[in-house]
Amino acid sequence: MNISIPNRLTHRVPLYAAALLLSIALLAAAGIATASAKSDARPMHGTAQGSASIDGVAPSFPGDPAGCFALGGSSPSCVIGFSAEFRATHLGKGEMHGFVINDWTAVLTGAGLCASSSGGEITFVAANGDELTATEIGGEVCIGINTFDIEWQITGGTGHFSDASGTIRTAGPAIVIDENGTFLPVVPMPATDISGQIGY
């Protein structure tokens, strides 16, 4: 049995199909725009207060970090663990913790007053428990002027920050040595500045 389709409907089918395709295209464009907006980097800033300790953590690290010369050992490399309370945009109030690996060769040889820093990790725990993680790009810790300046690459996290990206800089005073030139086992970090760009 043949079914005949009214002529007026056959003319409308291409219009319906075109409208459907246009709707799909608009929805796809809206999805792309939303994803793009989600990943756009936004300014991040804040402050933190805490302390660091030489060999405060013990990750797998060649060269025996416990041999750090500041503790009377022979190795110029030190693993320095730190923790601090912070308040920052996008995160609220929380706690950050992690470690950096400092090489004090330049200081030991008289070539400079700063230790290079690399290979560290940092975790920011937000007020709601979500975590933001990052790995160290590079930086330095300087004696004499007692400052540190570290840059981090965001690697992701949990919750709202599971797909986070961007960079963070932490910098400020760090009292590495006392007035007698002795390295302190616990390094006060009284006013750390947090800045950077984050997308999530």
What do we call the CATH homologous superfamily of the largest domain? Answer: SO1590-like
Total beta strand runs: 8
The share of residues in helices is: 10-25%
H/I helix tally:
2
Q: Which segments are poorly predicted (pLDDT under 50) over 5 or more consecutive residues?
A: 26-37, 56-67
Q: CATH fold name of the largest domain, please? A: AOC barrel-like
Whole-number total of structural domains? 2
Outline? elongated
* Gyration radius, in Å: 27 Å
The CATH architecture of the largest domain would be Beta Barrel
CATH class of the largest domain: Mainly Beta
What is the end-to-end distance?
59 Å
Strand content: over 45%
Average per-residue pLDDT, rounded, comes to 77
What's the helix-strand series? HEEEHEEEEE
What structural class do the secondary elements suggest? alpha+beta
Describe this structure in words.
Strands 1-2-3-4-5-6-7-8 form an eight-stranded antiparallel barrel. By secondary structure, it is α+β, with helices and mostly antiparallel strands. 18% of the residues lie in helices and 48% in strands. It is elongated, with a radius of gyration of 27 Å. Residues 26-37 and 56-67 have low confidence and may be disordered. It starts with 6 loop residues before the first helix and ends with a strand. The protein has helices at residues 7-39, 105-108, and strands at 42-54, 77-88, 92-103, 114-125, 131-142, 147-157, 165-173, 186-199. The chain has two domains: 1-39; 43-199, Beta Barrel (AOC barrel-like). The longest helix has 33 residues, at 7-39. A hairpin with a 3-residue loop joins strand 2 and strand 3.
